[in-house]
Amino acid sequence: MKNYEIKYLRNKLLNEQQKVESQLAQAKTYNFGADRPIGNSIGELSTYDNHPADLGTETFEQEKYVAIRNQQLEYLGDIRDSLQRIEKGTYGICAYCGAEIGFERLDSYPTAKLCIGCQKGEKEEEIETNIVY
Ligand SMILES: [Zn+2]
Prior knowledge:
The chain has 133 residues and is mainly α. It has helices spanning 3-28, 52-88, 103-108, 116-130. Helix 1 runs antiparallel to helix 2 (52-88). The longest helix has 37 residues, at 52-88. The protein is elongated and about 60 Å long. The relative contact order is 0.13. Zinc ion binds next to helix 4.
């Protein structure tokens, strides 16, 4: 990959990093967070008729929130990892076969660690192991 291509992708990663970090910071200010015990966010007024269905919705919302948050944290980890690989000069090289991942693939998927061939192989394996006979 050319130097200017790496520079371009580095900028892209830095922008993404900033975006995800601010999303995570914003999420912290929401009224219900991952560390907040269930029940607190329902409010005192409704505690006298605590309908199980309401609690179910509450738990579901919280689980969804935690799942999104975990996804964002994982993505942020991938972004930081990619930036580190740029520093080390190993960015854009397939972690499995050592081939160049290619600019076009990295442009649409800047945190890619595998070339498209290895990624496909991995996906097919995943699908195969998920088949229930
Ligand atoms: Zn590969």
